[in-house]
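Late entry, evening session. Most of the bench is empty. Finally got around to the prediction I had been postponing all week. Sequence below, unchanged from the version circulated by S.P.
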Amino acid sequence: MEYHNPVLLHLSIDGLAIKPDGVYVDVTFGGGGHSKEILNRLGPNGKLFAFDQDEDALANTIDDSRFTLINENFRFIKRFLRFYGIRNVDGILADLGVSSHQFDVAERGFSSRFDADLDMRMSQKNELNAFDVVNQYDETNLKRIFSEYGELSTAAGLARVIIEAREINSIKNTEQLKSAISRFLPAHKSHKVLAQIYQAIRIEVNQEMEVLKEFLEQSLEILKPEGRLSIISYHSLEDRLVKRFMKNGLFEGEPERDFFGNFSVPFSSVGKLIVPDFNEIKVNNRARSAKLRIAEKK
């Protein structure tokens, strides 16, 4: 399996402040690039657990007695770590979004570059796929996902033309979807609009926002005091959730004040927002939208 260079490799692992005998979790294993770097910095008594729900990632497992790969969604991080007798860890890394491998395998249906069946499942065990969303969701829900997850001002129109097109024939693949929504694909920015549409459908199929929230809440329980959270995100929806949770431990509202009137928050930020430099983007185009945030549990 061809997996591309891991994004912000050294900076994201630096952010974990690896202890040689610590216990760490890479919740987005993929090609194993970040995991290998964590193992390089661990001593003989350190442990690394990795999660990936994509069956393709199992081919990249690392032959190391300190390493355990768990073929599950990281929304279940707490449950599966406890299965292995782990209740607290020293650091957690997440490289969110779709892997380069998933984008590049045409039949997975993640990229509008290929004429492929509508799928977009990060795990083939998931029942819901992109075909179901496009062909079975009502107009209200289609409008919702295009507006919330695609941040498209044309959400209502897109939902309507999809409903109209599928009344004639099911929309089964990329070309049929492009044809149905062609009036909303201006020549000068059709790739950008398609990317937003695909992002919206993919997020819905994989419940990415719900998964991220569940993971962040569990990370707070699992991390030891002074444990580190290092998260790379690729679009504003993810980054806003991560930023807000690291700032005050909540997704909405304000944290409670303590006896002295100060806000009581569970994390302290480590440094400022980190983005890739020109050289990394030149080598790895996927890095162009990456944002790295690091926080330490108090």
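Two things to note before I forget:
The chain has a mean pLDDT of 92.
The two ends are 40 Å apart (CA to CA).
Will write this up properly tomorrow.
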